Amino acid sequence: MRAVVMRNHKLSVDDLPIPQSGPGEVIVKTLACGICGSDLHALKYTEKLVEASHRSGGAFTMDLTRGIVMGHEFCAEVVEHGPATKKTVKAGTRVCSMPVIISPTGVQTVGYSNENPGGYGEFMRLTEGLLLEVPNGLSTERAALTEPMAVGLHAVQMARLDKDDAPLVIGCGPVGLSVIAALRMKGVRPIVAADFSPRRRQLAEAMGADIVVDPKEKSPYSSWREVAVWPDPSRAPQQPPWVTGPAVRPAVIFECVGVPGVIDHIMTAAPQAARIVVVGVCMEKDAIEPMIGINKELNLQFVLGYNREEFAQTLRNIAEGVIPTDPLITGKVGIEGVAQAFEDLASPEHHAKILVEPWRS
Amino acid sequence: MRAVVMRNHKLSVDDLPIPQSGPGEVIVKTLACGICGSDLHALKYTEKLVEASHRSGGAFTMDLTRGIVMGHEFCAEVVEHGPATKKTVKAGTRVCSMPVIISPTGVQTVGYSNENPGGYGEFMRLTEGLLLEVPNGLSTERAALTEPMAVGLHAVQMARLDKDDAPLVIGCGPVGLSVIAALRMKGVRPIVAADFSPRRRQLAEAMGADIVVDPKEKSPYSSWREVAVWPDPSRAPQQPPWVTGPAVRPAVIFECVGVPGVIDHIMTAAPQAARIVVVGVCMEKDAIEPMIGINKELNLQFVLGYNREEFAQTLRNIAEGVIPTDPLITGKVGIEGVAQAFEDLASPEHHAKILVEPWRS
Prior knowledge:
Chain A is of the alpha/beta class. Chain A contains 11 helices and 18 strands.
């Protein structure tokens, strides 16, 4: 099969054997697969990703001397059932799945593995028990957004939001947009979102942000403070006596940038007792000032991925139109176009999500 | 009055005017005042403390060119009532108070301020409304432990502990010992505590730690894991499929060291989904690896001080013997001995808490 293979920090198009299904597995034909910021990270920092994953008990155990087919945001079509399958999902059915394979020997990722090619190739093998049917009437390209949108839902769930909380989203790339959609769905508003890119601010509005801020023009924290003042100050919880200014609702700040320095910047700018949810993946060492965290009693919640229920709920949400997805898809490429798409995605001015359609000529 | 004055990173004994009481304030005679690790920090990093406090909306607004009388862990005796006081607490009564003064112009700290000398001097001015009477039968020196013991109670409250949580205390200086006492009082056990110093490990046991670990001999995280395994695995919440080994109870790790590198070390060694409560005050920039936090979905809760209820509850707890205090007081000095006591406290082998008794000759 034709696939985009990552080797030595480079992408190239190769011919590979079609994967073989093990017990309980199916072979699927990839219909569409989104390119994720993590894939851009992985191409640049492959060794670092594997090393950090290894040290923290993670699942990324790639052998970097062999090729890897990335792609973990997919919608696919069942083509063949392997041994010991229940055949509950018929051949020809469109499906989504969390990008993992569960086998007797453990769990492996799809798309960050030597054995399990991801969606930048024509075929994949998947675990039958994890397949979710794409509802009739839902387009393949929207279904392919399940994975990235589940990331936002999980981040928002982990934030343990209360109706009085006032959210602020820093960074409106695909992760930030996904968080905005989940916040809007939960009805925790107003949603303030900040990004330097005009295009991304436009997307943030389309996804449901109430106020978008260009940090070059105005501090996102000032904009947040203006709308986070308690309408009824008698409902405000007591603040430490040295905190001045009008009482503001509890701040929940989503870090959706993932480059060094952003966590420190947020900690310094955050109001008293803010909760900071770190969704952006920073691959490098980063510096913080614990003293700032202590003085404000900040909380940092790091989050990763989603669970099975959140993934399934996201597919339902997309099918029911509860979360917007139309603004997100800004480009489509075939296999030959993937390397160029990676380069295009490095600049925020043109794209949110580019879908790979391996069968596109 | 005689007092220990901090100026230009040095301590010296000076004669100062007795403070004047403003409206709603009383003058008290200092009976005993503990030396806090924060005072050692403040002596070394005064500018940094003021600057970080300023940037994070804190209350430390010292003018460093003028002298400062530190000391915020005190028990005192009321000697004179200022104007507009209610005189609910009679002269001669022994009292404790949170080390702050609440005035019409705002809140000021006692002991980190040019205007409000702390307990390393013979007299202080305090806000009448904040005074707590020391119960009959409770010794002055135990009452002086209210402030440092309230720090541990607050940290444990902020940890939002559940009965299934398994705590680990990293560092058994006064802050760690205070956390251990609060954990023991809450009945969240077994309590695993680690420190390189044999003396501090001994104190940790005396304060209620169930298992003490010398990190030179064995990893505190291995010791923790051994006792944190679920006795009944069927009660364990589901772990991510890639996490191997027997299911362990949720980890709550208290960072009570406060030097650069410790947070990163804890993040790297912590189990999946651990909550890390940062109680130790690190005054310098510090490096972390966000990727490790993300892979494990760690939570970092920074904490500071205590609130009014926690402070009052701690005094009651000490009076009722609910938390042990006897092991803590390892030395007493007069005003002339404070500078030497600061040096002695830099080494963990000899002391937990040294009390300053300004009237001691």
